[in-house]
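Appendix B. Raw example, untouched.
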Amino acid sequence: MSYEKFNWKQTLSGRWERATDEIEHFYFSLAKLYEGSGRMFFAMTGHVILKANPIPDLPIDEAERRLDAALREGWLALRFDHPTIASQVFLNGGATSSTKVYQSPQNSDDLDAWVRGTLVSVSESTTGEEWANSDPPAPLVPKLFVLRPANSELRRDLVLRSPHEILDGIGTLQTLNNLIRHVANAYEKGPGAELTPKLGSEIKNLSPPYRVAANVPVELTPSQQQRIQEINAQKAAASKGSESVPILTIPYKVGETRPGRHQRVNLWLSEEQTSALVASCKLLGVTVTHAFHAAIAMAVRDLQKPPVTGSLVGQYVNYILRNERTSCFEPYSSAAHPVTVYHSVSGQALVIDMDLSVAEKAGTREPSTVAAEFADILRQIRDFYHNVRDDVEHYAFAPSYWAASTPSLPSDRSIPPVPPPKTTPTASISSMGKIDTVIQSTQGKIEVYDPWVTGEELGNGYGAFLGTFRGRLCLSAAYNDAWHNKEETLEFLCRCKDIVFTSLDI
């Protein structure tokens, strides 16, 4: 393998290209695999609410116009700070690799065309959260949708939509924060502060793939290759389960074979509940993510039908995602390069043995019994997370882990049949952590509320998300309405919260 192919090269006037790495190609291939559904698997949705403070002596209607102008200036500035936001991935011949392409604007008309096509004002007087659940389009290049809810002066809800091979979760939040900084500056300064970028100056800011950003070795040693083979074998075996020890699955509505609408529901904790939860976790030497992942495993078990005969043990099988920006070198470890895919998946599968005999007793068990089981599972999950964290070779193995999971596409580049729903859907979790460390709650005269991220869920499982902002934790879940509904998904989140709070005696 040569890293030369990962360097941005000008192929035509203003056209720059480089090869995608394994992480980018995984997400691009997965979207291609489901292209026949008319939807984009794992398309990113980033959401944030902006509330601008009035400008002294400036009428509200003029302040409204200034805010909209500031959004345009901010989006334009973002193009020059992070030009990869205007890139797109294309499949190569043979359908086993792909290329990321960026077209530099050649004149002001090119820039105006990009802004008109990617900064989209939504006419409905609805909230960003409601609109995000209305099956919005998944664009082939990132677009920022701007909503103005009814009766809400100086408020704008922003929904950033992007293919996952362009942006990941933490990167989406970083991108929104950088955008808000530009918006706040332009809103406060007003007319005359328009950006006058130098065309072509943005090329130096094009982002490399993870392999380059983290300086991943070009070739792994024979012993490292052997270890990866063993890890991949463990994951493959865990995903199959066995007749004696079945894999725990999320019940779903049978019959539909194609995905419907991606949906998101959320459950907020109060500041007091959040503070108590964080304190309890610190005392135990675990994170809030560890606690909710343990609860998810128990909540999935509680959805099982108790076996009449056979094994009384089932397995919760899953994985973890990890932000790899700390593995990258400057400036790629910072928010200077947010429009990237710099994260990893655990190599080995997380496998937790669960007692099936108590499934029917969910909600009626003694708190002490629930707490004892929770403590054991929490320890296993904490140890698994720490093993991934402490593995000094993990950053180098990450591309190989993604490659092992990348689906094959038809060599003739035709649209493949949409895969059927999984026979063993489960519930995963992705944690954004303390979002205040990524997105500032106040920038100049702009107040920020309710930032969140999801990946488009086209499968029949649950994708849970955690994030804390302004002192409150939000537990949310993405699901597809072909197989689940809002009520059952919210009930699942409430069950997870109850398990954590009961077990920690909060």
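End of appendix B.
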